[in-house]
Amino acid sequence: MMDYHFALKQVEEILQPFSSEVRRPQEHQIDFVMGAENLNAAVEALFLAQWGYLSAITCLDHPPVKDENGQESEGSLEVIYHFCRNAAVAGLRVSVPYSHPHVPTICNWIPSATLYERELMELFGVVVDDTPSTERLVTSDDWPEGVYPMRKTFSGFSQESR
Amino acid sequence: MESEIKTDNRFVVPIGPQHPALKEPGHFEFDVDGEVVTGASIRLGFVHRGIEKLAEQRNYIQDLYLFERICGICSHIHATAFAVAVEKLAGVVVPPRAQAIRTIVAELERIHSHMLWLGVAAHEGGFDTLFMYSWRDRETVMDLLETIAGNRVNYSANLIGGVKFDIDDSQRDAILRGIDFLDQRARYYLKVVESDETFLGRTRGVGKMTRGEAEILGAVGPTARASGVARDVRLEAPYIGYADYPVVLVLDDRGDLEARFSVRILELFESFRLIREILSRMPKGELSTRVPRRIPEGEIVLRVEAPRGELYYYVKSNGSEMPERVKVRTPSLCNWASVASLAVGHKLADMPMLLAGIDPCFSCNDRLVTLRRQDTAQTMTWEDLRQYGIQYYRGKRVCP
Amino acid sequence: MSAMEHERTVDVECPTVWQKALMALKTWARVNSPWVIHFNSGSCNGCDIEILATLTPRYDLERIGVKLQGSPRHADILICTGPVTRQARERLLRTYAQMPEPKFVVAVGSCGLSGGVFHGSYNIVGGIDEVLPVDAYIPGCPPRPEAIIYGVATLLESLKNKQEKG
């Protein structure tokens, strides 16, 4: 509580070189927007500096939107890696397009991330390259391939297919 | 015949998803070499209910009740985390009396959860007397929760913007009496788990996790604190009433099952102390405040300390009545990973205790055995095994 | 010997006095000491801990002969909690199939009755009765231990009455 300003300043120094934009969504939070190619280096830097621990990996789905001219932008998936140290929360935000939804694994540095990565793959269809396990974690054994329930476009199965 | 069963390959013992007496269905597979476990893997999803998706289709008030039903044991803390996150996004300040009541219910819930765990873990260790004792005494705290909330399990104490009920003087006295009784009982349990020889045989030195391992494996809550990781969200990032009524960290650096037992029991004392302190100086005032139906755009990460450890909520609002995205990461998910790696090198008989040590529970093998040989996987159902057994003993002429 | 085999050996054209007496004896035994198995098909644990609470000293179901069983092979009553998830559906059916006849199903809790708050989710099939024939429903979120005892007792009472009429 007391020194989260200090922790935020620290993490900003560590991650500044890897990020293209720094945001402050809440007083105790700081977000770093970065490309997928920088993710591993950023996690490594956090790990070596022993700054905090991985709290969770969240994914956001941004489906394609149409602008005034009827031009459709490409949908994207935004993966957020939240690291915490006391009250400070640092988010590493990586956006990947639908056409190439690849992010690198961070299990080399944080082995416990495997569960979150399995969840990402199943629920959002993010491809995590080189992740140690790709087995199903939460969806059922008879789950159809290529159906990702947490995408905004998914609205449930029809009654018959249940 | 016997030689057919003996192979030098993996022998997999599946545990779950259905277990007698106990709760969460999860599926574990342990590779064993004789009695010793050589590998473990997890399969969840038996209780995957798609709550995060459902939350996007409902409004904030409906979601509050939905999140309360993520877990029946720590229902209050889920609803609290969600309510606090939404309140912060909406920028409202909750009256201090409401925060104090939330804290009291949260601590009563912690007591109920730890006592539940103590019983279940003792049962896994074959110590059913302790199971019955702790569950009998747990009824005291269930009664208290029922007295103040009207329901034994899903108390539904929270509103977005406050709490639903007040704690009056007679309820306060009832809580204090109940806590005095539990305090006395908890002292007895502490003595039992730290001095009972047969029980120590199952816990001392079993499932040892060093501080470094706990940090790497991402363990949280009492499991991590029993390994000396000083991590408690109530202290690090105080929420609801914990800034006004600070808790004292309970730490143990032994890292084995015994430490996990004593950390949880010592946390009971901390909860008793905290509840007494809050009740002795309850702030006066309103119970709730108005919160708009539409929550302004924003996002927040909110962490709270559930009985099992750090609970993580991510809420993203888009200015409408429904959240854009809610992500929940429960403490058990973090601790699963620690079991999978702790299991290696221990005896199969220690598995129930190890699993119970992090708080989810397993006790019995599924009725299906898979023998994996070099080239073929042979599955024997219970019926096949029974027939096999009958044939085997007929051959030996042990029984007619 | 399993109950199923037992049935087979007794099954001849018309029941004699002895067989009728044996049937009555079996119903008597079943009603007075039902063995139950508990299956969680996607519940939040709320109902499960209340079921477990019925076995502990305050309520102590064992004093009236009810025993919680680990194996479906030995059980008379299947107590189900929670909505049925896609993943648990097969396991629930398998557990039910493994139980010897006659078998009874009790659905505990709002979710077991209809899916409850989880109704409409992609991973939920529905209440227990979408999958299995349910003999007794115990509503509540979660039902109190008293309600669970009452539900099981009502089921047993109806068995007794059926036997007397039949």
Structure notes:
The complex is a heterotrimer of chains A (162), B (400) and C (166). Chain A is of the alpha/beta class and 162 residues long. Chain A has a domain at 4-66 and 73-101: NADH:ubiquinone oxidoreductase Nqo5 subunit (Beta Polymerase, domain 2, 2-Layer Sandwich), CATH 3.30.460. Chain A is 23% helix and 28% strand. Chain A is built from 3 helices and 7 strands, in the order αββαββββαβ. Chain A has helices spanning 4-15, 36-49, 114-124, and strands spanning 21-23, 29-34, 53-62, 76-85, 88-97, 102-104, 127-129. Chain A has a 5-stranded mixed beta sheet. Chain A starts with a helix and ends in a 33-residue tail after the last strand. By secondary structure, chain B is α+β, with helices and mostly antiparallel strands. Chain B has 2 domains: 2-46 and 365-396, no CATH class; 51-329, Cytochrome-c3 Hydrogenase, chain B, CATH 1.10.645.10. Helices cover 49% and strands 15% of the residues of chain B. In chain B, a hairpin with a 2-residue loop joins strand 4 (158-159) and strand 5 (162-163). The radius of gyration of chain B is 23 Å and the shape is globular. The longest helix of chain C is centred in the last third of the chain and has 21 residues, at 145-165. Chain C has a single domain, classed as Rossmann fold (3-Layer(aba) Sandwich). Chain C is globular and about 55 Å long. Chain C is built from 6 helices and 7 strands. Chain C is of the alpha/beta class. The B-C interface holds B 17-25, 45-51, 53-54, 57, 65-66, 69-73, 75, 116, 119, 131-132, 135-136, 138-139, 142, 152-154, 363-364, 367, 382 and C 37-50, 52-53, 55-58, 68-73, 82-83, 85, 87-88, 91, 95, 98, 111, 116-118, 120-124, 141-142, 144.
